[in-house]
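Take a look at the protein record below and flag anything odd:
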Amino acid sequence: MKKLTIQKINETKIAAKEIPTLFKDKGITYNTIENVNWPKEFPYCPKMEFGVAHTEDAFLIHYRVEEQSVRAVAQKDNDNVWEDSCAEFFISPASDGLYYNVECNCAGTLLVGVGEGRNSRELAAPEITKQIDRWATLGRQPFDTCNQPTKWELALRIPYSVFFRHNIKTLDGLTLKGNFYKCGDKLPVPHFISWNPIGTPTPDFHCPQFFGELSIED
């Protein structure tokens, strides 16, 4: 199991567009997403790394991606963003068996769900998803497949209030479970890669038993 320490940043009112510069100034370490869990069927591995930190009331994430094609067809939040060029963050904030999936395509359209497994997801209401501030180098408008090598970045500020089935005041000092992913189900070359490896026979990110360890710095 991989382990990751999530550094605390004592800043307030951080906008998503400020996260890349903030992470550079604070020396945040970036981690690669490179586990090709199903190499026979889906061998392609785009270049992807992420930096993550937290404040008193939010997670801050910055993704950097280089892949051979991009897609951002989803029109609105909670559409099928996993079919696009998509970065994902799954986290269990408590020990009650529930985990959240925060999935965002390269144009900043996202999906948030919660449940105990793939078949028991409850999607977040629009007033919840709109709390997530997003910044994307490819802009915020949907676009169809662009079949050429592309570099893109995405930054998210995810307030703890987005975890709507829990009443989180602080996560300081806790050790949680979670994983980070990159996928693109309807790209010309589909792929399914992860930060912590997954041991299922077919692609499936909804596997909390394969989450890594996230230590939240206080």
